[in-house]
Amino acid sequence: MSTLVYGFAVLGSLVAAAVGIHGLAGGTWTLVAPGLLPLGGFAIAMDRLGGFFLTLVAAAAAPVSLYAIDYDRGARRGLLAYLAFLGAMALVPLAANAMTFLVAWELMSLASWLLVGREPGTSRPAWAYAVMTHAGFACVLAGMLLLGARAGSLAFADWRAVAPALDGTTRSVVFVLLALGFASKAGAIPLHVWLPLAHPAAPSHVSALMSGVMVKLGVYGLLRAGLEWLVPGPVWWAAAVLLAGVASALVGVLYTLVERDLKRLLAFSTIENVGIVLIGVGAGMVFRAEGLGALAALALVAALYHAANHAAFKALLFLGAGSVLHATGTRSLDACGGLVKRMPWTAAAFLLGSVAIAGLPPLNGFVSEWLTFQALLQNLRLPRPELNLLFAVALAGLALTVGLAAAAFVRAFGITFLALPRSEAAAGAHEAPPLMRAGMVATALGCVALALGVTWIVSGLAAVVEPLAGAAPPLAVQAWGTVDVGQGFAALSMPVVGVALALALAAPLVALRLAGARRDRRTYETWGCGRMLQTARMEYTAASFASPFKRVFDFFYRPDRRVDVRAHAESRFFVEATTYASPTRSIFDDWLYGPVGRAIGQATTVARTIQSGHPNLYLAYILAALVAMLVLG
User: Fold this and answer.
1) Model's pTM, two decimal places?
2) Residue pLDDT, tens place only, 187-217
3) Could you state, in order of their start, the residue ranges of all structural domains in the chain?
4) Residue 517 buriedness (CB in 10 A; 0-12 / 13-18 / 19+)
5) Residue 579 forms beta bridges with which residues?
6) What b/e readout covers 358-388, taking b as 16+ CB neighbours within 10 angstroms?
7) Mean confidence (pLDDT) of the chain
8) Is-contact 488 496, C-beta < 8 A?
């Protein structure tokens, strides 16, 4: 049964990808069925932006579903929820009125909630996800109903027409409500609390889709609200989005650096990459508000490019993490090690994904982050000094994020796959089955294609963002796969970069051969610092690798250091064991969600006292209400 369901998902995803590519190429159509839904009926429409996000969903779902055939073989629960999840995600970017959008949005949330809570012991993550996703849905619902009431219609096309005539207060209230709802789904700071709980709890193929594409639909909603439904908007909307992006990127990567659970590490990395996308969106909104349409288009191209890149390499990394979990039964970095010899296909795929997500050339993450930097460096063309300062903060935050991300994924790959196994599970690991490997290879090829096809991709994305920005981006395609930014401001050729890196790697080997170096191989044991035998206890662990970063960012992590020294029973001068722990504490749990949770608990305690169930107390309430009515009357 599971094989049939996932096979159908693969075929359906390929069909949806073809439809999305048709929309990307400029195909437009509208379908309305008035009787299916109240308040405007069921209505979907295709434009370039909808085609882009539909293609994103389908292109990620096809290899992930192929992977799931072997990963989830024999499963009986959650199969219909998986199909509903894919169908709802595909429907969201096509919705043409509020009712269709809200139904698809809620179906997407409910189906993913069922998948998060599918396995035993996942009730807490599922509960946290349910609370946050429905709080976000309430904000989206309120914003859409308010805008629909003022516009006299729930059709998105009517909103675009009447938005300029609405008063500024109404538009700002609607934008804040919609931005909170969409940012919650995207996992932006500080609305991210559900993401590191739900993503690890879900099956790995579901985590790949939730992290790779579902959170991007929050970005899609933000683009529609800020650059289409409510245009024109004040510059403070854009500044808020840009600052939220910087905060999300930095906080996400800082937690990625110290996390010891492989799937939670990838979940925090999603927050970081959503932050990078929001930096591009916020910069585009700033430029648009200041009348610089071409620069707005450049920033939006960078944002959409990074959204596509993140969908590819994050899906690849979650599939790799699923293969590790499938082979070892653990997500702990400290219980792995030595997997590169036992799982070479998985190790190669995870390494490629790590290079891509770290923003290193010649892979796709480097391209979109380079474009984001180029957009931010155009800040000198902004006439207001406070906006220049804001862009300087964004540049510094993005640069720090990129550097820390490289360190985080050196740690993730090295601790998981290199050195010696640190547990029996790692020592007995096996390679993933064929279809799981095929899914990883397909997503890896997607990362490579997104890097090498930069000229075609930026040309396509330029057409997508032009209606949003009101102008074409200052991008020119030249020979040798070169993209020129800003009429000579900067240029990038990924084929040239790839060839240069290959030559740099080959140069030492060529030099050694020309110098007459011997070609025979000498086998010798690894240098062991004077020890005759290397053991797993001599390796770096996830905690020891992260320790310097904990010290540098001590003000953020606020680690709770605990040292336990156990002495010998006969004498306290002889130590049997020393245990050291330095767990980090979440600022958001301590300062935001903890106090809110305690306040809600106190309120429910009071409510429980009032609703005691004693008839005499309820009669007293009735008497007090009657007396109050008589007095007021």
Assistant:
1) 0.92
2) 999 999 999 999 889 999 999 999 999 999 9
3) 1-197, 234-510, 587-632
4) exposed
5) 564
6) bbbbbbbbbbbbbbbbbbbebbeebeeeebe
7) 91
8) no
